[in-house]
Amino acid sequence: MSTDFKYIPIIDISPLLARCDDPKMAEDPGVYEVVRQLDQACREAGFFYVKGHGIPDSLIKEVKKVSHNFFQLQYEEKIKIKMTAATGFRGYQRVGENITKGVPDMHEAIDCYREVKEGMYGELGKTMQGCNQWPCNPPNFKELMEEYISLCKDLSRKILRGIALALGGSPDEFEGERAGDAFWVMRIIGYPGASTTNGPGPINDIGCGAHTDYGLLTLVNQDDDITALQVRNLSGEWISAPPIPGTFVCNIGDMLKIYSNGLYDSTLHRVMNNSPRYRVCVAYFYETNFETAVEPLEICKQRTAGAKKFERAVYGEHLVSKVLTNFD
Predict the structure, then answer these.
(1) What is the pLDDT of residues 276-307, one digit of tens each?
(2) Top-tier CATH class for 10-325
(3) Are 1 and 44 in contact (CB under 8 A)?
(4) What is the spatial distance between Cα 120 and Cα 83, in angstroms, rounded to a whole number?
(5) CA–CA distance, 309 with 258 (Å, rounded to integer)
(6) What is the pTM of this model?
């Protein structure tokens, strides 16, 4: 469970990455220290920054740059990749089209998912069938984003090997049938600057309403100079997660909360862009296998007096239910 944390910890994960695929990684003192910090961060906040992650800074910046360029296009250009049910809910959505707990969010986005071919997940996967829609301009947009997704997927897998050790399991606890064929989601999100309009009627300044993430682990790549992400602690205070160059903000999702039997919580967070400047955030969500039935790990039940606190949840069902109720 989360605590009354006042800040988001920063963890240098380079020792973990250096030994990540070593069968004896758990015996390494550097890995042990990273695992200790991951455990503390997941127990106390459910959020942490990672540095030493190995993804080139040039790529991280280029991803944000081309995202800014897309959102600056005319609306008529952006809706050429409009998101619909027929596209498997992939593509562009305008400001206010995404809904969080009944309230329109003040952001626009390109939604991307692991591509799902017909029949890939049977009846369960029909809603998510489709290929990602990418802008034609710049011409390397698709190639750039797919390279970025591949690196984020590998990084997430490695961080989860550390989290598996933190829970008391083996490093490959979240591989194989659990997340060896991981589904993923990526949202390229644009938040307009704070409104200066003095006209009649309420102005919704919430870029994205309070929510938890669906899967295992999220990597947040946010603009370096605008603080907008906020995380709620146990007392209900909203703690800012300001951008720190060279880091990702990471947080755990609903499926990891179940696997950990509540030892780790998926913490509520929201986005409020009070800056007059436009803000871009690229969020990559690393999930379980689509058809995986998620339930508390045996090691985590033992750590919580043998009680099973959560019923099993099929990730694909969880995702589809969220997708179908999240849009106008």
Answers:
(1) 999 999 999 999 999 999 999 999 999 988 88
(2) mainly beta
(3) no
(4) 21
(5) 8
(6) 0.95
Q: Give dist(CA 231, CA 247) in Å, integer.
A: 17
CA 279 to chain centre: 17
- Tell me the three state secondary structure of residue 272: coil
Phi, psi at residue 5, to the nearest 5°? -60, 150
Above 60 in pLDDT, residue 37? yes
Residue 297, pLDDT score: 96
Query: Cα(34)–Cα(160) distance, rounded to whole angstroms?
Result: 12
Is the four-CA dihedral 163, 167, 170, 172 of positive or negative sign?
negative
β 229-232/238-240 pair status: antiparallel
Q: What are the two backbone dihedrals, phi and then psi, of residue 259, each rounded to the nearest 5 degrees?
A: -55, -40
Dist. CA 110–CA 186, nearest whole Å:
8
**Tokens coding 2:** 């989360």
DSSP-H helix ranges across the chain: 14-18, 29-44, 57-71, 75-78, 141-166, 254-259, 298-303, 315-325
Q: What are the φ/ψ torsions at residue 315 (nearest 5 degrees)? A: -55, -50
Rounded CA separation 176/296 (Å): 16
**How many Å is the Cα radius of gyration of the chain?**
19
Angle at 182 (CA atoms; ends 179, 188), nearest 5 degrees: 135
User: Please, are residues 186 and 284 in contact by the beta-carbon 8 Å criterion?
Assistant: yes
The span from the CA of 305 to the CA of 326, in Å, is 37
Which tokens belong to 212?
């938890």
Name the amino acid, one letter, at 207: G
Q: pLDDT at position 327, please?
A: 57
Q: How far apart are CA 248 and CA 152, in angstroms?
A: 10
DSSP assignment string, 216-264 = SEEEEEE-TT---EEEE-TTSPEEE----TT-EEEEE-HHHHHHTTTSS
Residues 6 or more apart whose CB falls under 8 angstroms from that of 310 comprise 257, 258, 261, 262, 295, 296
Q: Tell me what pLDDT residue 212 has.
A: 93
